[in-house]
Amino acid sequence: xxxxxxxxxxxxxxIAQAPAPVRDECRLLVMDRMTGALQDKIFKxxxxxxxxxxxxxxxxxxxxxxxxxxxKRGTGGSAEVFLLRPMPEAGxxxxxxxxxVLVRPGRRLKPGAVVEFAxxxxxxxxxxxxxDWAPGEGKGERVARLRTSQPSLDEALHAVGHTPLPPYIHxxxxxxxxxxxxxxxxxxxxxxxxxxxHFTPELIExxxxxxxxxxxxxxxxxxxxxxxxxxxxxxxxxxHTETYSVSEEVVAAVDAAHERGSRVFAIGxxxxxxxxxxxxxxxxxxxxxxxAKTNLFLLPGSEFHAVDCLVTNFHVxxxxxxxxxxxxxxxxxxxxxxxxxxxQRYRMLSxxxxxxxx
Length: 358
Prior knowledge:
6 helices, six-stranded antiparallel beta barrel
């Protein structure tokens, strides 16, 4: 198995630069998990593939306004600070907190530098002092101390921050809420769990009225979700670590579904990673987790214990997500499905169309 096995030619014009005007009216490519047979549908048709007793599990995380555009104190030069993850003692509820961040331009933002961020009235609403290099991380990663004179960092973040979009989306000026799921709750992620973007409250209600259950987990999506695998041997790839939680209620719902012969639908790869990370090999069952860490790397040859069906978007070539989806079905089925999607001019990646693999 080589990383190049999960490569494909992605026409740039098919990378969606904006979401579908109506969330559940994007296209849906339905693939039989075993045979690879394909059907072209509309996303709201997913209702027809869900049976009473099935359980849907979605990632309820919300994207932070993590992209901060400011100016370096002393020179006035433009600078960007992207919040990656809070340090263990930090949060966004006080006036000071320490975060791991990604900075641009990295060569000018060394320890000791301070970046100031202006609020709507033009005054400085928050500052980030670079206090250290992030250990073992990339060239642009730092440790920064965030400070504000406003009542809280949370308030300051929402005054100066922007919802970060993937690097392949350029110039989007639409509603930033379209990059949040309708069921999102706590702000904790640097990127959206994009398979869930297609659900509307009405579609969720229809699914529940049919007799299927809707549950949520939380996995805090990191910026590494957009990385391609550089190593030609994917087993040499260092999988990033993310924080996730799976409640007792979700465990009970999944267990009950399987006991009665119903299926568990994971809404997105982050929901898959949450559920499969919560599977205890020794106990042979799903266990609840609270703010646990996972670097689970699912690729062909991996076993799936909790998930029976997968709702997912189309992914970047040579990514761990391509490998995960291929593991859930087969590389041949997935590559054939992608070839079909490109031939049929499906819209690709985060703002694009969706797949159901079942």
